[in-house]
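In full, the data:

***
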Amino acid sequence: MSRSEPTTGVEPVASSPQIWPRRIRFVQLGRHRVKIDLWAVAVTLVLAVAVVGVSLWSLTLGSVEGADLPLGRVASAILGNETAAVNRIVVEGRLPRVLVAIVAGMALALSGAVFQTLTRNPLGSPDIIGFTNGANTGALLAMLTFGLGYSGATIGAVIGGLGTGAVIYLLTWGQGLQGNRLVVIGIGISAMLIAFNSFLLVNSSVENAAVAAAWGQGIFDQLTMTDIVPVAIALVLLVPMLAYLAPSMRMFELGTDSAESKGVDTDRIQLWLLGIAVCLVAVVTAVAGPIAFIALIAPQVAARITRGPGIPLVTSAAVGAALLVLSDAIARTLLAPTQLPVGVVTTALGGVYLVGLLIAQSRKAAS
């Protein structure tokens, strides 16, 4: 007969299961507890290093034979220690387009992350559902119809983007903002805007149409250091607002009804998020023309490499910057001395990605 163990009057407590995976850590910042995904942080740091490396490599590349520069001379030119000719090539020619590519890639990727989270659809990108074409329409009207030039095109692109967003928002408002409804209506609006943009180009003079058509492909040739300012200001103003709304935005990953059940004022939050995302697209379009597919690809790539439950904003921005800097380097050098519009390169990359995405979706639906 075995002897029973003496009891202490206290039942043993089973160890509680770990709720969060080991990659998740929490940091207390004042009264707020911030969740940090260590894997996403590591991936983002690697991407940031890649952006710096590709940017430096791009600065060394010339568009004509013999114009390549070693990295040491590029650094000297940035510090103002080179000859006037080299300083002009690096500081006035290559550096503005690389910096614009970085900030524009971040802005487009953040905009795409917001739209894809709200719509819960990988095709819910601003260049698929009409916002980019709306900004293009505003810019074309300013340049071709009102003759306001590039400065007017900037304002026109912002007004066109916001106007398109307002129209799509009102058309989807019947039963609340539903993701698939927004995508379908947005694709229809996008098709009509493309037709209208073609009408504007056909009915303008040959010279104006050529300039507007080149701008409509996303071209970095004429960029200067001042063109960085509007995109940088937009990021400085809008990113803190996006960070403030990000916890509520995460609730939309479970659907609008679930977000409402968690106490989120879905109508107000959606309106703010759409406004931020449209402004990010519009300001990039105003500066560099419509650049396709960065907003579509970057959030999905970020979601896959971080392997998280949603679309990570910071990692998406890093992927967008890396993609656009690389696309610009390819556009400058692939057919040198002829320089391709950067939009042609991003469209080619995006087309391959879109076909792959549709094939994967069809296989998933069939299984």
The domain at 25-345 is CATH 1.10.3470.10 (ABC transporter involved in vitamin B12 uptake, BtuC).
